[in-house]
Structures are given as C-alpha cells and as structure tokens.
Amino acid sequence: MERVEPVEDLPLDVALLLDSSSSMGRRVRAVSAGAAGFFDDVLRPGDRAALLSFSDDLVLRVPWSGHQEVAQLRAGAGSLRSHGTTRLYDSIVYGLASFTSGGGRRALVVLSDGADTESDHGLEQVLDAARRGGVAIFPVALGEFGTLPTAELRRLAEESGGAFFDASVDGDLGQIFARIERLLRTQYRLTFRADPEGPLRLAPVTVRIDRPGVTVRTVVAPRG
After folding, report:
1. Residue 2 in domain
2. Angle at CA 18, nearest 5°, toward 99 and 162?
3. Confidence class of residue 199 from pLDDT cuts 50, 70 and 90?
4. 199 versus 41: which is more confidently predicted?
5. What contacts 112, CB < 8 A, 6 or more positions away?
C-alpha cells in the first residue's frame, strides 16, 4: 500500500437518470420535484450535473452544467412526462457514456419503478461500462418491490461503489439524495501498485474497517 488519504468535499459530477415510462404515471410529478430539489440542495461551486430521462429511448434533457445553471436543470426536471416502455439497462449504459473526463467524484443516480423491458444490453455489460468509467451507480427503487430487479440493482450498486435505496423504506427523495451526497462527499483514497511482472488484470481488493456499524463501499479505478 503506497498511500491512504482522506478526500473530503470532493467536486461532484452527478447525472440524474429518471424513468419517464408509462408505469411511472403520477409518480413523475414527485420525481420531477425531487430532482429539482436535488439540484438546489446538492450542487456547489465546482460541481457539475446532467439530467437524463428514459422510456423507449434516452433523452439528454440538460447537458453537463455547473451550479450557476441550476435554473436550467430545474426547468429540465419540470418538463418530464410519462410514456412508453422501460429500457433501463440500455439507458444506464448510455448515461454512463455521457460522463466526460474530470477529477471529480462520478455518480449516476437512477430512479425507476419497474423491471427492464426491451434493452439490448444486459447486467454484465452495464457493470463493465461502470467499471471502465469509474462511475458509482445509485439506483433508487420507486413503487412496488415486486416489479423491480432488486437483486440486479443491488449488485450494480455494490460493484460500482454506489448504494441501493428503496424509497418506501429509506424515506422521501430529499432524504435519499442527502444520504447520497454524504456518501459522495467523504471518502478515502487508497493507492497501491500491482505486481508489474504479473499479467495485466484488475486485481481484487478487499477493504475492512475495525469499527462497528460502519459499511465500507469500494470501487477500483485502475490507472496507467
């Protein structure tokens, strides 16, 4: 291990990916309001955010914008309307591809109420895209648990360094967004070098903390 360092108040690059399929129905209004509140409450100088929605296809409603452009982000959230099917995995892959280079903490927050329909991409392809991009994924489950691929979403969150939330258990969207921000703003960076003589591969990393009640979330971001 070369270095262990706390990283606090890290600039954020956060994309909100909102389900606007027909099944969302009346939830769309609450999701729009929650997204607008997220931009108001979370964005600080140096942060960037983008807003995307999905149903039959992915729509980039507001491209990457700074905290001074909150009004545009709020307006984009307010224009959401429900229609079509739920191409969840395709939309996550395309959402991950929207991230550009930068030194901030990267996160994709996904709000959806239903199982994937009609996607060309599968779970493993989504995981691969998240690893390559160094993006933590935070799925937020809305609606009835039985309609959501919760095991897959939990795995997606865990393996990307994010966290899974169930809105019926974890509180309203404002509370969930606040928890996501806390997770993103404070972290430790561990730096180590793999064996230069060994094969080129992603080395497995296990981090343990000797402190009761603490949950560790990790993501490996290879360099060089």
Report:
1. no
2. 60
3. low
4. 41
5. 19, 86, 88, 139, 140, 141, 142, 148
Neighbours of 97 (CB within 10 A): 13
58-66/12-19 β-pairing: unpaired
How many domains does one find in the chain? 1
Q: Indicate which CATH number applies to the domain containing 59.
A: 3.40.50.410
Residue range(s) defining the domain that contains residue 138? 8-188
**Domain-embedded: residue 199:** no
Residue 69: inside a domain: yes
Task: With H, G, I as helix, E, B as strand and everything else as coil, classify residue 15.
Answer: strand
Helix (H, G, I), strand (E, B) or coil at 203: coil
More confident residue, 224 or 128: 128
Give the pLDDT score at 218: 58
- The model carries a pTM of 0.83
Asked whether residue 84 is assigned to any structural domain, the reply reads yes
- Between CA 100 and CA 143, with CA 74 as vertex, the angle to 5 degrees is 90
